[in-house]
Amino acid sequence: MRLLSSMQALAHGSQSVMYFQWRKGRGAAEMFHGAVVDHDGSENHRVFKDVAQVGQALETLEPLYDAPKQKAEVCIIYDTQNRWAIDYAQTGHAKNMRYYDSVNMHYRSLWEQGVNVDFRDTREGTDLSGYKLVICPMLFMLKESFAEKLRAFVENGGTLLMTYFSGVVDESGLAWLGGAPHNLVDVLGVRATELDALFPEDQQALLLNGKAYKVTELCEIPENHGAETLGVFESDFYAGMPCLSKNRYGEGTAYYLSAKLEQAGLDAIYGDIAAELALTRALPDELPAGVIPTERGGAVFLQNYSGQEQSFTLAESYTDLLTGETVQQIILPANGVMVLKK
After folding, report:
1. Which of 29 and 255 is assigned the larger pLDDT?
2. pLDDT-based confidence at 69, cuts 50/70/90?
3. What is the chain's Cα-based Rg?
4. Strands 211-224, 259-261: parallel, antiparallel or unpaired by DSSP?
5. CA 54 to CA 227: how far, in whole Å?
6. Closest residue by Cα to residue 274 from 134, 120, 158, 133
7. Structure pTM?
8. Is 318 helix (H, G, I), strand (E, B) or coil?
9. Quick check: 147 and 180 in contact, CB under 8 A?
10. What is the pLDDT of residue 335?
11. Contact at 8 Å (CB) between 81 and 171?
């Protein structure tokens, strides 16, 4: 696990791995703090050997550190000022709107597919023009200039996915007048009306492609303004209303998701979008659940988070940079990691 977590950091851009602390303190609060060197001063124990293994891997992979980065085709908007605004909002599940967790769920769907993702915020310098897909989870605080940027992105051929609780207030925290998401109703083909906060025991779901995906926490009651309905709410007074919609605007496409969806539902949505946009994946192969490929510097970090050994065959053979071996039939132990290069 130590090697796996260290390689995960490296796969996502880290130049090294550091440890606190080197040697256990002799007294006080840090006498038993985890450390590379124990009180006996010996290198002949498990922790020291695990750290030495990481050090060897870091030296072996040094040629990757300054290799050109593959440009991401997907961007997720995560904005700290937006988080502050959500934390202050006296609505929904006030003080527990789980913005960070929601952003993380959208990211996870693409990360598991091996799709590189950039994170940007809503500052003036943010340029969306180079992306195929821009995702805006819970963009509650929407600046006028950024709304125009999203409009231009879709109009010029980009694909936008926006969710519930977006475009409600301006950068001063004052409600936009004229409907939400502000200045994007025609782009998305949907206007948000009410926000419904679910109790934990409430039952709601998105019906999509013949399957029901659980909905929790927050739902919006949507008003259709010309969008194509892809999935509907299953029950309650808004049963049959659009929960996932798709709208053509200019040369591009805009999706709107009206509810907090379970991970499996997001996976299904992003699986379809990734296929439609032909998003570049770290590996073209279908991998077992929990085996994650991440591209960096022309190499693929193949990481096994499934908790059990995984065996599978790749379409092509690769060199594992950590061992120097040529591999195609892969056997990855639990927490195993390989760094593959053609």
Report:
1. 255
2. confident
3. 23
4. antiparallel
5. 51
6. 133
7. 0.94
8. strand
9. no
10. 97
11. yes
Give the whole-angstrom CA distance, residue 180 versus residue 169. 9
DSSP codes joined into one string, 125-152? T---TT-SEEEETT--B--HHHHHHHHH
**Burial level of 278, CB count in 10 A (0-12/13-18/19+)?**
exposed
State the angle between helix axes of 2-11 and 46-60 in degrees (0 to 180), rounded to the nearest 10: 30
Task: Let me know: does 30 contact 24? Beta carbons within 8 Å.
Answer: yes
The confidence score (pLDDT) of residue 70 equals 86
Taking a C-beta distance cutoff of 8 angstroms, is the pair 297, 69 a contact?
yes
Residue type for position 117: V
pLDDT digits (tens, 9 = 90+) for 271-330: 999 999 999 999 999 999 999 999 999 999 999 999 999 999 999 999 999 999 999 999
Taking the C-alpha atoms of residue 50 and residue 183, their distance in angstroms, rounded to an integer, is 54
Distances (CA, A) of 234 to 237, 240, 243: 10, 6, 9
User: DSSP alpha helices (H): ranges in the chain?
Assistant: 2-11, 46-60, 80-88, 99-111, 144-155, 185-188, 263-277
